[in-house]
Amino acid sequence: MVKLTANQSLIWNALSIDWKPGLQVMDAANLPSTSFYPAIRSLEYDGLVESQWGEATENRGGFRPRLYRRVSGGDRPFVEVKSQRAKGAPITVAVCYYSGKFYFWRVKL
């Protein structure tokens, strides 16, 4: 099971099963490049994200964009843990994604 960091969680939420350019994902996640690229490489290594090179266009000066997407139906589960405050008491919400399904539960601290 993979536990996502805060940056990985932001990237995961910005991705979809459709291919997106890295800059678009980085802007949607609101992360600087120094945080984005190590986090997305880690997600790739864990098998949750895949990437490929896009086509070169004249608009980009002949450069090819790097495209990213979620791995649909990934066989590696992960757990995303978020801390929230409800009425002054800290509550941790855990989200588990496994075989294309999300599972949620709360844990009182």
Structure report:
By secondary structure, the chain is an alpha+beta fold. The protein has a single domain (2-108), classed as Arc Repressor Mutant, subunit A. Helix content is 28%, strand content 38%. It contains 3 helices and 7 strands. The chain has helices spanning 6-14, 22-29, 33-45, and strands spanning 2-3, 20-21, 49-53, 66-70, 78-86, 89-98, 101-108. The strands form 2 sheets. The chain has a 4-stranded mixed sheet, with no helix packed on it. A 3-stranded antiparallel sheet has the order 2-4-3. Strand 5 and strand 6 (89-98) form a beta hairpin. The longest helix is centred in the middle third of the chain and has 13 residues, at 33-45. The two termini are 22 Å apart. 17% of the residues are buried. The model has no long low-confidence stretch (mean pLDDT 77).
List the helices and strands and how they pair.
Layout: E1 2-3, H1 6-14, E2 20-21, H2 22-29, H3 33-45, E3 49-53, E4 66-70, E5 78-86, E6 89-98, E7 101-108
Helix pairs in contact: 1-2
Could you give a short description of this structure?
The chain has 109 residues and is α+β, with helices and mostly antiparallel strands. It has a single domain, classed as Winged helix-like DNA-binding domain superfamily/Winged helix DNA-binding domain (Arc Repressor Mutant, subunit A). It has helices at 6-14, 22-29, 33-45, and strands spanning 2-3, 20-21, 49-53, 66-70, 78-86, 89-98, 101-108.
